[in-house]
């Protein structure tokens, strides 16, 4: 796939080859993310980082990724503080802000909004999450993490068993990840959720059509040979009221006791974060924090590599990153783990 100038809006754009292309560039980003070296390949470039919905990790990692390539970041957060609150169309916002930037990363609460915005943009637009629809960069970093974690145990993505749990209806990360995994061979999906929060039919159709084995259930048992357990948060912001979300909070928890009882010793534990650590939710307990199979912080670290790769590719500099390398002058040993 020729990424230069492309928007990254949906995982539907990718094939296995293009995913591998992204992962190869992401691998090359590690020394820069660890501050062993610097690169100024995007010196002078500007990222418009537009987050119209709450975010910490995704927003900061897009910004950090751009800074690590030597570029500058201009940021807008929240709907209320933007002209969208005055009734401005996404098209107008896109026309204007894309004149101020070389690439735009955007998150918005409405499904399809980032694609609509991209129609008015003069520069590549990367989807940082559009409502309950898609979160392609998260899916890429999740798949990158899965690949690395499974390789550590001598396994590959093809033939693996993934168990997704929690709010599969509104969780955009599981929608995008399932669609990406559908491109691989013989995946077993166990989809555990309250009946009301099941994976949407549109996503099920994609994975079933690709010939994968899917079990939809509201029971945690039966996943004892899962390679990955991917836990999610109840997406309270997508419910009509907090009281409605309360009905489902805390229904499917993962803690040390449940993990040991239901999963095999090598099952990798993932979560896109943030985890809801309030007592009534606590879907992924702190008592697993020191567990070697807990990959959640490795996922977050990998997010920077994937976003660096996407910027390098969409701005057409992936083959020049090393050419613009320079020294790191400050103390940075603690990153070299
Ligand atoms: C996720 C999101 O925003 O969809 N967070 C993230 O980007 N890592 C998941 C969530 O908010 O629960």
UniProtKB/TrEMBL annotation:
Its EC number is 2.1.3.2. Residues 158-313 form the Aspartate/ornithine carbamoyltransferase Asp/Orn-binding domain. Pfam families: OTCace, OTCace_N. One of its GO terms (biological process) is 'de novo' UMP biosynthetic process. One of its GO terms (cellular component) is cytosol. GO terms for molecular function: amino acid binding; aspartate carbamoyltransferase activity. It is an enzyme of class 2 (transferase). Pathway: Pyrimidine metabolism; UMP biosynthesis via de novo pathway; (S)-dihydroorotate from bicarbonate: step 2/3. It catalyses: carbamoyl phosphate + L-aspartate = N-carbamoyl-L-aspartate + phosphate + H(+). Residues 7-147 form the Aspartate/ornithine carbamoyltransferase carbamoyl-P binding domain. Keywords: Pyrimidine biosynthesis, Transferase. SUPFAM superfamilies: Aspartate/ornithine carbamoyltransferase. Catalyzes the condensation of carbamoyl phosphate and aspartate to form carbamoyl aspartate and inorganic phosphate, the committed step in the de novo pyrimidine nucleotide biosynthesis pathway. Belongs to the aspartate/ornithine carbamoyltransferase superfamily. ATCase family. This is Aspartate carbamoyltransferase. It comes from Pseudidiomarina insulisalsae. The lineage of its organism: Bacteria, Pseudomonadati, Pseudomonadota, Gammaproteobacteria, Alteromonadales.
């Amino acid at each position: 796939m020729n990424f230069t100038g492309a928007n990254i809006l949906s995982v539907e754009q990718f094939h296995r080859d293009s995913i591998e292309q992204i992962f190869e560039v992401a691998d090359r980003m590690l020394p820069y993310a660890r501050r062993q070296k610097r690169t100024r390949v995007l010196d002078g470039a500007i990222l418009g980082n537009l987050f119209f919905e709450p975010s910490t990790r995704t927003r900061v990692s897009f910004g950090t990724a751009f800074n690590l390539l030597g570029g500058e970041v201009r940021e807008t957060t929240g709907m209320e503080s933007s002209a969208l609150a005055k009734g401005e169309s996404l098209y107008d916002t896109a026309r204007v802000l894309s004149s101020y930037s070389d690439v735009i990363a955007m998150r918005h609460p409405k499904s399809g909004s980032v694609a609509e915005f991209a129609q008015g943009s003069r520069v590549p637009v990367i989807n940082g999450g559009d409502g309950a629809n898609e979160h392609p960069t998260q899916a890429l970093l999740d798949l990158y993490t899965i690949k690395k974690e499974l390789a550590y145990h001598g396994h590959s993505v093809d033939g693996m068993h993934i168990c997704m749990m929690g709010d599969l209806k509104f969780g955009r990360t599981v929608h995008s990840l399932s669609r990406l995994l559908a491109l691989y061979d013989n995946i077993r999906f166990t989809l555990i959720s309250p009946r009301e929060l099941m994976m949407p039919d549109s996503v099920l159709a994609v994975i079933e059509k690709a010939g994968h084995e899917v079990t939809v259930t509201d029971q945690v048992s039966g996943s004892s040979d899962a390679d990955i357990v991917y836990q999610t948060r109840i997406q309270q912001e997508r419910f009509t009221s907090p009281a409605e979300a309360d009905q489902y909070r805390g229904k499917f928890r993962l803690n040390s006791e449940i993990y040991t009882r239901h999963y095999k010793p090598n099952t990798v534990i993932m979560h896109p974060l943030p985890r809801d650590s309030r007592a009534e939710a606590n879907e992924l307990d702190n008592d697993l924090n020191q567990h070697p199979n807990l990959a959640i912080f490795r996922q977050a670290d990998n997010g920077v590599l994937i976003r660096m790769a996407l910027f390098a590719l969409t701005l057409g500099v992936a083959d020049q990153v090393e050419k613009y390398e320079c020294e790191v002058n400050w103390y940075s040993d603690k990153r070299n783990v």
